Amino acid sequence: MTATTTGWGVELHGVTQRYGDVVALDDVALTVRPGTITGLLGRNGSGKSTLGSLLAAFRRPTAGRVLVDGEDPWENERVAPGVCFVRESGDVLDDYSLKDNVAYLSGARPHFSHELAGELLELFELDLKRKPSKLSRGKKSAFGIVVGLASRAPLTILDEVHLGLDAPSRYAFYDALLADYAEHPRTVVLSSHLIDEVERLLEDVVVLDRGRVLIAQDAESLRAEGVSVTGPTAAVADFVAGRDVLATQRLGGTTQTTVRGALVEGDARRAREAGLELGPVPLQDLFVHLTDPVRTGGAAAHAQGVDR
Amino acid sequence: MFDGRDPVYLQIADQIRQDVLSGALAAEEQVMSTTQYATTFRINPATAAKAFAQLVDEGVLYKRRGVGMFVAPGARERLLADARESFFADTVDPVADAARVLGIDVEDVVARLRARTAAPAPQGEPR
């Protein structure tokens, strides 16, 4: 491996970001492990983009401390070139050709790979003579990805960059990301609504919900925490008693319940003996249940939510 | 591929064990790198690395610094010994339990096993 960069870690201590009356981030404590691909998941307005803006020092938090590679990124000449924040909106020079854009943007990135940029431009069929303002949404997204990956920044934040891409282009992006990440390890914070598609790419997962951190753990253990229990209603009720029930569906005498909490020794045998079927829960479903406003609204609402 | 109940790294480890058992991967043969695994199956390289670490612990693979992962000498024999040990508990006992529930005579099961064993081995793997 020819690691030209190593990943930078991130720490947030009591970070609050207010926009007038709106609290975008609310007393957030968070660690992003250096060198991981960390998924930043959350519903619209959960604070994902604000978090990215703080890491990239586009703004300063209202309160609390942000540390990137151990330092406050604000007006920090050492840290700034190493943090690449790519938003779907682009952050490119709209009225200059892609060629000029690459020349300009690469100047700010000490690890920029023109070779990789060339490969990716070709992969996404981007014409260097075109201007971003003249590109379709998909092509504009693709150019953001080219810049984001070719920069090889020790902290790369990709905020919904692949939303405008069609499915084949998204998979091309996932492959390019993994291939280059494997050769040049760095920290990648990937925010996405397409959880099914990206979950296997992630080593760690952070779920934001209305400005707070709901989950921050490794993807493998998070996935192991979701279990679906299916079988006769009474047997299911018996098995899930005392567990964290996320959702319940009934069809005739059969019930399917989604619970959170890793299985312990003997659970699988107990379920089999009770005629119950245990199954995996896709991360996407787990996310939907966990960020359900009824559930996160409070304990009383949660108790009512069990029976839906 | 890799979509079962188990974590992906366990499934990768299991697949490599199966390949060593079947002889598809011979002793001293190099296995795919974490990078190749990551890009082939679209998974995080750390997931593949975790599978490799487990197999190194078990003595199925060993690492040659700067070159990659290789199948350890004697890995197949060790895996075979393990598999034989768990064969009766993992494979035969559930058949006996199921036969009892279904009211199938044990002699019929034995006869079937004899007939099946005498028949030519199935070609290819049912994957």
Rg of chain A (C-alpha, Å): 22 Å
Share in β-strands of chain A: 25-35%
Number of domains of chain B: 2
Number of domains of chain A: 2
Strand-residue proportion of chain B = 5-15%
The strands making up the biggest β-sheet of chain A line up spatially as: 5-6-7-3-8-9
- How would you classify the helix and strand content of chain B by structural class? mainly alpha
Alpha-beta content class of chain A: alpha/beta
Instruction: Tell me the quaternary state.
Output: heterodimer
Put simply, the count of helices of chain B is 5
Query: Taking all residues together, what is the mean pLDDT of chain B?
Result: 88
Detailed description of the structure:
The complex is a heterodimer of chains A (308) and B (127). Chain A is an alpha/beta fold. Chain A is built from 12 helices and 13 strands. Chain A has 2 domains: 10-210, P-loop containing nucleotide triphosphate hydrolases (Rossmann fold); 225-305, Alpha-Beta Plaits. Chain A has a 6-stranded mixed beta sheet with strand order 5-6-7-3-8-9, sandwiched between helices. Chain A has a 4-stranded antiparallel beta sheet with strand order 11-12-10-13, sandwiched between helices. In chain A, a hairpin with a 2-residue loop joins strand 11 and strand 12 (254-260). In chain A, helix 3 (114-123) packs antiparallel against helix 4 (137-150). Chain A is globular, with a radius of gyration of 22 Å. By secondary structure, chain B is mainly α. Chain B has 2 domains: 8-75, Arc Repressor Mutant, subunit A (Orthogonal Bundle), CATH 1.10.10.10; 76-118. Helix content of chain B is 61%, strand content 6%. In chain B, helix 1 (8-22) packs across helix 4 and helix 2 crosses helix 3 (45-57). Chain A binds chain B through residues 36-37, 171, 174-175, 178-179, 181-183, 200-203, 219-220, 223-224, 278-280, and chain B through 2, 4-5, 7-9, 34-35, 38-39, 41-47, 50.
